[in-house]
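Human: Note token order:
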Amino acid sequence: MQKFKQKKLILITVGIFTPLFLTNSKVNASSFGAEIFCTMRDGGNDHESSWEAAYTYIKKQKGGIFKVSPKQAASQITETVIREKEKFRYCVEYLDNLHPNRKLERDLQKDEKRKEKELEETNEVFTDETIDRYSY
């Protein structure tokens, strides 16, 4: 029983300290993700393809249980570009595309949902029984 407790304690200790040693991979992933994004944008690629390539790389390198959200990846790229100003000075102009107007996106989604709801309500009013093409 005592050996089981010791093994359990060792596993818990390893589980706690392992992420602390792996944080360097996050920095490297976001740095290279920023390099991918900025190089592609500077090469003439559009925002979407550059963003997808960088985000896919960051997600793949992160690993672990929790996934990197698009918002987190965009923040990591922004932090890297700001932190390494000399290396990425040509990329600052592209950062605004990483952080779109969230309020505008929410408003557009609300409008779409409202229109869908109105369409559903309209469809409920007109059933097969109310529309008879042969009734005059």
